[in-house]
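Chain A, query sequence.
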Amino acid sequence: MNTIDIRINVLDVDDNDPTFPQPLYTATISETAPINFFVLSVLAEDPDSVTNFAHQLQGNTTNAFFYINATTGDIFLQRPLNHENAHTHYLIVETFNLDSPAVITDSTNVTIYVSDENDLAPFFLAISNENLDEGSYLDELIVTLTLVDLDVNHMAHYVEFTLLTESERFYITQDIDPANSSISFANLFLTGDVDFESQPLIAVTIRALDDNTTSAQSAIATVFIYLNNLDDEPPVFDQELYEATVNEGSLAATIVTAVHADDPDVGVILNYGLFQRIFPINAAPFEINSQSGVIQVFDDGSVPIPDFEAIKYYTLEIIAVDGGGNNDTTIVNITVLDVNDNTPEFENTSYVGSVSEGALVGTSILTLQATDLDETSNADIFYIIVSGIDNEHFKIIAATGEVFVEMELDRETRPEYNLVIGAVDQGYPPNTGLTYLTITIEDVNDNKPNFTRSTFNGQVFENEANYSVFIPFSSTSNLLYITATDDDIDVNAQIEYEIISSSEFRIRTELINGAYVGIIETLVELDREVQDRYVLTLRAIDGGGLTSATLPQVVIDVLDRDDSIPEFDEIEYFVDLTENGFSEEYLITVSATELDSAANNTNIKFRISSVFKVEVNTFTNIDATPENLFRINDTTGEVFTNSDQFDREQFVEYVVTLETTSRDN
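Chain A, predicted structure.
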């Protein structure tokens, strides 16, 4: 027979309610525990093998300090705790089946104690500022401070006060309020000297510790003690010596500098004054504002305003006086700054220089110098040519004022240059001084004499030695002047004239009306009847030895003098005379000529010098009275009978002798 074991499992049915094993649970948590901190576990029990229940806090909201895990029953911190606000929290934890509808089956109480931690710092109550006269004190109570610590029973309210500042002169005693151990008192005492001038405000800092461990909390209080000033200190200037500058020419009220003195006493009003003018003595044109200490230019007409060229610095002694009569002095040195208020000045208002027209480019002519009463760059001078016609022929060295030839010169083109020279300083704005420079160009004998004509014409009378040639068709007083010019000057323009090869004439040079002229004179007596015209060749030589480029000719006509004897055109004239004719019968016209000019031939005169009658038989010449028989027109040479008594049987022939003469001879 066979046997078999049958194992029968009894299936559990959730027929039991969950319950808490304890009616009360307790736990302690620090007030400084962090959020989500685990506090304790409150877990319900269910005999059933299959559980289907949960946990919850009765009346739990989001503002509660704790929350519970519904499954595990673990309680956690949900909000920060504060022992001083609530040192115990009471909770009710409930459990319930999850069957629908859910039914609470049990509950238990949970008490959570919040342990006190030193998490609150002590603090001082209102602190007032204190006022105290400066001086010396011994164990003087200044102020009592109140300290509060809200931690409960922590270290039995241990408090320790410490001075963080001013421990040399101050000390603290402390007390606890017998009615409230959370309140402590700190008594601040002073032993020592306090001086307003050195420390008008004293800050005493006190620290309070509520624990003697490293976790101690602290409070800091500062007591401000304001010292009351007593006017017991003299004023003191910021500087023993002030250095300042002022521009020369500064007008009245121009601010130069400011001095400042401090008086350790508070609220003291200082008065500033000009104690003395050290240099120049009583001659400094400055004043000081008694309230502000501002020093400015003063001009009442009694002292000149700052002038660098006159006085370059001033020294003042300034005094500051407080209301108690305490005082201090300081020195102020004021340096006068040069202002470009002076124009460069040349030694002369005008200069004269000279240079040869043959001077090479770069030849120095002269050096001009100017001075400027200013200093530094205001007195640094450079030179320029400001103006002048054709001034590009010259240049001036800016740094030295030396004037040079810049281009070739020609005195004949421009004998003189007038330049305006400027001396310019390098101030701002620059000043310019002017002078006038006249440059005279010295002559070089670079020009030959030049005759004014290629041909000169003149006249001279014959039979005259040392006689000057004169202008044709003029009076003999209008001499013929041989003229030439020379563009040079002085000795180089002095001209001498020469006749090239002549034994009949000479030429002399005279200076007439500023011009050198040649006057031609005869060396010998000329005879027009031999040569009536002369042609001379001239040359001119200047004082420098240059000879004219051209050789002009002088044509001289010899003028006639009535110096020749007239001669009859015929040696003999034969005329037939009718006897017993009539008186004034025209017989013949005779003529005569002379070698002088035709003009002089009109001066011939005729006359009958003698008449001879020739007898018929004897042919004897018988002298007769001419005018009784014949007459002649002394100008025309016409011969007439002057009688009607001519008898051939008596006189067969008449011989009439005629004479001819010149009116001048």
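The CA atoms of residues 118 and 194 lie 39 Å apart. The chain has a mean pLDDT of 88.
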